Amino acid sequence: MWIAFLIVGLLLFIGGAGYGGYKSYLFVKEEKRLELDKKENLTFVVCHASIGAGFAFLQAAINTGNAWAMSNFGASLSIVGALFFGASLSVLVQSFYIHYWKPTQKEEQRVWWTRILYISIFALILGFLMLGEGVAPYLTYPLVNGFSINNNGWVWTTFQNGAGGFHVAFYGVFIILGALVSYWISDHKMYQKFGVHGIMDTTLIFGLAGGIIGARVGYVIGNWNGDVAGGVNFSEEVAKGNWVEIFKIWNGGLTILGGAIGGILVGSLYFQWRHKSIGVRTGMDVAVPTILLAQAIGRWGNFFNHEVYGAAVERSSLSFLPSWIQNQMATAFSGGQPATSQMYVPLFLIEGLINVIGYFLIVYGVGKLLKKWLHRGDLCGFYLIWYGVVRAILEPLRDSTYHMGSNGFWSNAWSFAYIGIGIAFIAFMHLYDYLRYTKKGLAIPTPMHKGVLEYGKSAIAPKEVVVEEKKEEAPAEAKDEPLPIGDEALALDDPEDKEK
Q1: pTM for this entry
Q2: Measured between alpha carbons, how far is 410 from 231 in angstroms, rounded to an integer?
């Protein structure tokens, strides 16, 4: 039976995703098409329903294939949850694609796509929670955190049973996914400013590489003399001449605090070299706050690794959390199930939620409400302050096993360093602008990309107009004056200025 469910599920998913994706692509690429008609909207509804049904059949295949003795309620909850999850995911992808890659569509339709985008996010979370709650009692804990391919073939791994060979950890997958989300949002912000996609493409590569290097450097510095958990003592290894231990990143050992600094530094230097006409401060304001979302996603890797948690408490005190989170964060396991009534406080989840809130506060709170007083680069500084405060509060709540260093000093040092660097950065940018522009009465240049000023204003200078001297006997014929192209034009900074 499960094979039949699997085949039907795959056919429904592939058919709906393929046809819906093809029709969406055609609509985006046809520049003259400004809106979808009723027939096309109905077609997309059918495609989303097909994808949702495909997910439901695939979940039914999983339920029956594993021979889970599920109650009618549990089976129904998992299948309905899978249906909601699949359909919502399909709507989210399509609405994101059309909303951000079809700017020429009619305003009324664009507004609706925005609404659908946010509604689909909540529906996706709801479907996932329903699905998870339905299958939670039948999963094996601790949950799989990756897989290895070795002499024994394909081996699923958990934090308790690692395996040699080629290993892919979910932690790394979530880091890459977070980086991609950060890129997609940054790319769209740049598109809003300059009307083209791809400005952040290569910056992502260099920033990600710099982040990984920074994460390793931060970990090695913080644990130079070992840590509470009995990790590698790098000072001893180096004294033995075993320098290679510093570079064994595949054995674990990364810190987000060092990774963010490394990614920002390398990415900013590259962006300034690659896009001098835009300016590094604009690039930082666009990209750096999105790191909060990337970090929130990356924290789920800690969930599967059963790490970065707080004190042990009774499960009853956190009974509002989904069952699969409670089970995964249990303090002990036996026979594939939690072996104790206690669980660790999931600090990774708390930090992730706070990071998401921080992103919206910085970008849409500070970035919009305080726009009159902001200077370029301020949003980057606010990211550093926000994340530094978050970590300064949460670090003391962590289990001592996850403190950097033998006494946890470096965990707190990194946190307060973030706060100090963020405040100093904002103060420096304001002072720099005052001395360089305000005090001299000069306008701050507007960022430009390939001849187009920020928010699409033309940066191409009109041809020089030679005006002859006026003759008293015959006044010169009136002519249109050329558009301002100097400091006056560069002072225009956004669409609101244009309207004024």
Answers
A1: 0.83
A2: 15
Q: Look up residue 263 and give its amino acid.
A: G
- 274's tokens: 């690659």
Closest CA to 397 of 352, 346, 358, 353: 346
Question: In terms of C-beta density within 10 A (0-12 exposed, 13-18 middle, 19 or more buried), how is residue 474 classed?
Answer: exposed
CA–CA dist 20, 86 (Å, integer): 14
Identify how many contiguous H helices and E strands the chain contains and give both numbers. 17, 9
Does an H or E element contain 369, and which?
Answer: helix 367-369
**Tens digits of residue pLDDT in 283-296:** 999 999 999 999 99
Which two tokens mark 418? 């973030």
Distance CA 362, CA 347 (A): 22
Phi, psi of 159 (to 5 degrees): -70, -15
Cis ω before 142 (30° cut-off from 0): yes
pLDDT tens by residue, 6-43: 999 999 999 999 999 999 999 888 878 888 888 889 99
What is the β-pairing status of strands 342-344 and 312-314?
antiparallel
